[in-house]
Amino acid sequence: MTRYSDFAVAYVLKGMASVITILLIPLAFLVLPTVTTMVHATTVSGTLEGTFVTLGPWNQTNGNTIYRYVLTGNYFGSFSGSFSGSEIAITYPNGSTTLHGTEIIIGSYDGSPPGSIIGQYWGSINAVGYFQGTEVFSRGNFGLALLQVDDTVQGQVTGATTYTGNYTVTASVKTTPLQLP
């Protein structure tokens, strides 16, 4: 009789361990990201310069002109590297423009190893060529894999296809305990 009861107790304990394991695994996935992910935010600034090329024919509707552009250029400063992207801009009868686009940057942030990061931006240009906008970047790889960037850009269109400006970046770098500075 002792052998049977030992077997039964072992069987019940084994079953309870499986149930506890099944219940704890989802709990671990809920708690783990908050335990292992920390955010270190910094603010840096620098300059940028770029060129734009009109793609295809432009469209006109209700007095507004819609343009499609390809952009290329460079960021200088703590956030440095080259960029390329595409943009749609709407110019209104008063000469002002609103714009929206996507951009990929290949470079580094504050001394990090090189990588690439993709993002989007939106902004406006007034009738005399002053521009301002907001950019949001995430989904990076290699040296920029843990970076989330929110920045503001302002500057001036300097020629038929060129512009220069300044940026201020507030970047959040997500780190794990193994990668703390």
Ordered list of secondary-structure elements with their pairings:
Blueprint: H1 2-36, E1 38-54, E2 59-61, E3 64-77, E4 79-91, E5 97-109, E6 115-125, E7 130-142, E8 147-157, E9 162-175
Antiparallel strand pairs: 1-3, 1-9, 2-3, 3-4, 4-5, 5-6, 6-7, 7-8, 8-9
Main sheet record = 8 strands, antiparallel, barrel
> Mean pLDDT, rounded to whole units?
81
Write the H/E string, N to C: HEEEEEEEEE
Per CATH, what is the topology of the largest domain? AOC barrel-like
Distance N to C terminus = 62 Å
Q: How do the strands of the widest beta sheet line up side by side?
A: 1-3-4-5-6-7-8-9
The dominant shape is: elongated
- Number of DSSP strands? 9
Strand content: over 45%
Radius of gyration: 26 Å
> How would you name the CATH homologous superfamily of the largest domain?
SO1590-like
